[in-house]
Every structure is written in C-alpha cells, then in structure tokens.
Amino acid sequence: MREESFDVVGIGHAIVDVLANTTDAFLTEHGIAKGSMTLVDAFRAETLGRTMKSSIEASGGSAANTLVGIASFGGRAAFIGKVNDDRLGQVFAEDIRKSGVHFDVKPFTGTTATASCHILVTPDGQRSMSTFLGCAPEISAADMAVENVSAGKILYVEGYLWDTPGAKAAIRSAIAVAKAASRKIAFTLSDPFCVGRWRDEFKALLAHDVDMLFANEAEAKALYETEHFDRAFQEIRRWGKAAAITRSAHGSVVLEAGRVHILDAEPVSQVADTTGAGDQYAAGFMFGYARGLSLDVCGRLGGLAAAEVIGHMGPRPLVSLKSLAAKAGLL
Amino acid sequence: MREESFDVVGIGHAIVDVLANTTDAFLTEHGIAKGSMTLVDAFRAETLGRTMKSSIEASGGSAANTLVGIASFGGRAAFIGKVNDDRLGQVFAEDIRKSGVHFDVKPFTGTTATASCHILVTPDGQRSMSTFLGCAPEISAADMAVENVSAGKILYVEGYLWDTPGAKAAIRSAIAVAKAASRKIAFTLSDPFCVGRWRDEFKALLAHDVDMLFANEAEAKALYETEHFDRAFQEIRRWGKAAAITRSAHGSVVLEAGRVHILDAEPVSQVADTTGAGDQYAAGFMFGYARGLSLDVCGRLGGLAAAEVIGHMGPRPLVSLKSLAAKAGLL
C-alpha cells in the first residue's frame, strides 16, 4: 500500500456559486420562489447570469465545501469533480486551488457548461437559489484513476451524485478502487429527498462499501423511514461503523463500534445562514479522524466548523478553522 | 423471596404544598425572593400559613410526586415519609391516599410540625416557594421494616434525604434491607446543589448500592464536575447500570449495560411550569421498568409524563397518565 498524499479525497458536483444582492421585485419578475432551491436549465442559468448585477463568484458544491473546510483545518484535501473549460470552470478551478484544495481533473470537452448556483440574497437575508447542474454529473470512470481515488486516507462521496446514472457508475468504480487500496470510504446522505429517491441503493452501499456515514437528523430518519430519531440511531448503531449524525441546535451524535458520544452544539451568537453547516461538520470530523484523534474530538471539530459557517453568510469558513480549533484546545 | 405488593416503594420528604395566588406587593411585604425556593423555619411557615388567603393544600415532595405519577399510570406505589399528626399531616395522608398511593407510616410524635411548602403564585405566573422541612427528615430506621422497604420491585430514594444525618442513616438501613431482598435500588440526584454537598457519598452509593439512576443534565454534570454533557454521559455509561438523564427541550438519554437510547422531548404546546417534570419522568420510567417494558419505552413513558406536568401549573398530572400512554400507543 503506497502512502497517502491526502487526508481526504472528495468526489462531488463542481458548482460555481454566483451570489448577488437583489430585491423582492427581481425575484417576482423572474418567477423565483423565495427561500427555496430550484433546479434550472442552461437557458435560465444564462439569463440569470446576465441579469444579476455585481455578483461574487466562488467555487461551491457540497463535497467541495467540505474539502475547503479540511484545508482550513490544515488538512490535505483533493477534489474530483467536473467543470467545463469555460469561464466559470476557470473560476471554479482557480478558487478551489486558492482555498488550498488540490484539483486537477481534466475539464469536460462537451458543450454542456460548468454548473452554477445563482444565489439571490434579498434585504431580509433570505437566499433563493437556482441551480444549473451543467456538466457537473459528467465525471466518468476515466477520472477515477487509482492514483487519484486512492491518494487519500479517506475517500469522501456525496449522495447527490446518485441522481445521474453516469456519475453513479463512476462512483462505483471509484469505491472499488479505494476499497482495493484499503482506504476508508465516507459517504454523506446529502439530502432527505435524495435519500427518498435512492434509499435501497444507499442501504446496500452502507452494508457493503461505506466505512463512515454523515447524515443530518432528517436524512437519517428518511433512510430508515421513521419519525423517531432514536430508531434511526439504533439502526446506525447496529450497522456499527463510524457515523456522525448532526441535529442542529441539539448538537450531534457520533458513534463507532461500541462507542457513542452525545455532543452539544457549539454556541452560535447569531444564526445568519445554515447553508453548509453539514458540509463543514463533515470537514472537522474527517480531518480529526484522518489525524487519528479520538471520536469525541472528531465530533467537536465538526461542531466547531459548523458553528463558524452558521454565524455568517456563505457555506465556507471565513477564518482559519485550524486557529479556531487550537483556541478551543482541540488541536 | 416473597412476591412484591408494589411496583415501587419510595422514600422522601413528606411535604404539604400550600398554593395561593398573591401579588408582588405581598412578596415585597414578606421579604420573599420572587421566583426562588427558600428554606424557612417553623415561625415563618406559620406566619405565611395564617396570612395566605384561599389556598389549595395538597401532598407534595419530590419522591411523593413520583409515586403519585406511578399510580396515575396504573402502577402500585407506596410512600415512606414522615408527617406529624397535626392538621397538615392529616391533609398529606388523606391526599396521597386519594391519589392511589399506599401510605401508612406512623406519624411523628415530637413537637416539630409537618413540612410545608408555601407556593405563592404572582399574576405573571411565577412561583415563589418557602419550604419548611419540619419533621420530614425524622424518618428513622424503625420506619424501614423489611416488609415495607422490600414490598416493591424497586426501592426509590431521594437524594434530598442526604441533608439530614438521621434520614441518611435510615436510608442506608433501608437500602441494606432492600438489597438483601434482591430489590432494585433507584436513586435520584434531586438537585445540583445537593450533588455538590454529597458528591463523594453519592458516587460511593452508585458504586456499591444503586441499580438505577435518575439525573437531569445539570445534576449529572455536577456529579462528575464537567461542563460537557458527553463526559458525564461517558461516566454513567462506564458505570453501566440503568440510568435516565433528562435534558429539558433536548429530550432524554436512557441507558443500561450496552444499550443507549436518545429520545426526543414530547411536544409541549405551552410551558406553564416545569416543577415536577423530573419527578414525573422518573414515574414513567420506573413504571415501565417494573412492568418489564423495553428501555426505550420506559424513557418515552417518562417523557410523556414530564410533558403532561410541564403543560400546566403544579407538579402532578391532571389527567390519567395511563390513558395518555395508551393513546400514544405505549401501553
């Protein structure tokens, strides 16, 4: 087994977040449902891109956000995801590299553009998102070379990828490669609706391939079709591998084999935007795990990172998570 | 081993609650600290009793409240506690029997009066309590005859009793008797300040005598001198016997041997008065346990009973807990 170059290699949708302040009138004019996330097509994404004024562009997407968090902890992280060689694709690549994440996947050569998520922020602080998936699901088995997917101690995979047959097949081959190299396979359920669409496949993945599970409470309940947190918790305990279940203000529960830790949420003075809280929790947990820290410290690093992003707009840390963790006495 | 006549036999302070509506001016005039609980002497208790108008009198005290809860679930409960043969002592005995709890302890023959807790409710719903312990701590080894303390499947003991040397000695002999009869010994930490006063003795009790522990989060943290819930939880897990830790809106955690259940709080439409929530939680849990129900159902019965008393003034259920539990599908 060759030595790993990274703590975590993550696979997910490569999406450029395009943020702009706007008015309620603009949302009404463009028929955008306030406060929700809507999937849109290329035409609509282009129109929005043209119409939105003075926007901020940044690399985004759930797994990519997690990897940026790991880099902020001082961890070594690599991202596998697909962009086109268009302007937004270049924005994505530059931005994620600037955040300290290794990224060198060959750009998509077809006509489908780089994925974008147009985030419109109204004066009341609400975010209305229009996501165009573009070429993000076009990752292929060719992108999953053994030297890439087995380059990390942990291979982290986003549940969202299941929605496209091609991406799913690529992930399956990546998992096989990482398993053969004795890497840990970490998986996030991503979204309760995503769980609803792929419940049986996700359960089979857990049974055969996954070593580490990330879920929020709603996703865990959706997976086991129960209204009771405890029932989902019992199922995950029975499964027995490493898991972190996040519960918003109720903190989180982390478990592995016989161990269980019930962790309080880190105090947040003001909840500004919960987008990305789960992504950053996964960052803290996996960073701690890859560095051999105890299970409860892994969970507390997760909680710390989640609290940081909840306190401001945007899904990525604004300050060094490494310093925050040191200040909290966790590193 | 003879058969048990009761599900639970409980030992605690026998206190008569005297409730009256009053004004802020009355509190100021009598120097009563609003919203708090103050220990008072006989003279002050008498003065308050004379001055308070149109009051409601009812049997009270933490363990006694728990036993009334058990009776409300349809359980068989007996109380061991000390009253004088005065008017309030008769009120206590009549009221607790009317609630379905067996009570036949010989009254105290000294001059110290029956304990009372004068509860003054101001128009804003706040409760200001003046507690006179009176003869409540005068329970003696003579009250702990084997046919009494071993008459239940579970012997339930209040931590509050530790504050008086005589009561503590009586409890120690009761525990010895119950252990010899192979009964389960259940113990509640009662109060974080009480834990602070008797930490080492409580830890020794857990190590040698107690089979079932009740604590709220503050008490559990106080016992193990930690600010982190998870640390207290890990200590209790290591201890390994049956335990229920209540966490207010965060629900409860119940555990025994390798099992752990993380239970949500039951929904409460309006928090009117949290007095007695812990007492009723213990009622539901022990009723379930004595009836051989699974650990998670014991905890859910506890949560159900706690939610009932939180929704209204007063520490005892206003409706049948048995019906509530049946409606919730738990019995």
Unreliable stretches of chain A, pLDDT < 50, 5 or more residues? none
Order the strands across the largest sheet of chain A as they lie in space.
6-5-1-9-10-11-12-13-14
Mean pLDDT of chain A, nearest integer? 94
CATH class of chain A: Alpha Beta
Q: If classified by CATH, what would the architecture of chain A be?
A: 3-Layer(aba) Sandwich
What is the assigned CATH homologous superfamily of chain A? Ribokinase
Number of domains of chain A: 1
Provide the β-strand percentage band of chain A. Answer: 15-25%
- Amount of helix of chain A: 25-40%
Structural class of chain A: alpha/beta
Look up the CATH topology of chain A. UDP-N-acetylmuramoyl-L-alanine:D-glutamate ligase
Q: Give the termini separation of chain A.
A: 28 Å
Number of beta-strand segments of chain A:
14
| Main pleated-sheet profile of chain A | 9 strands, mixed
Q: H/E order of the elements of chain A? A: EEHEHEHEHEEEHEHEHEHHEEEHHH
- Outline type of chain A: globular
Largest chain-chain contact? Answer: A-B, 16 and 16 residues
Please tell me about this protein's structure.
The structure is a homodimer of 331-residue chains. In chain A, helix 8 crosses helix 9 and helix 10 runs antiparallel to helix 11. Chain A has one domain: UDP-N-acetylmuramoyl-L-alanine:D-glutamate ligase, CATH 3.40.1190.20. In chain A, the strands form two sheets. The first copy, chain A, has a nine-stranded mixed sheet, sandwiched between helices. Helices cover 40% and strands 22% of the residues of chain A. Chain A is globular. Chain A starts with 5 loop residues before the first strand and ends with a helix. The first copy, chain A, contains twelve helices and 14 strands. Chain A is α/β, with parallel strands linked by helices. Chains A and B meet through helix 9 and strand 14 of A and helix 9 and strand 14 of B.
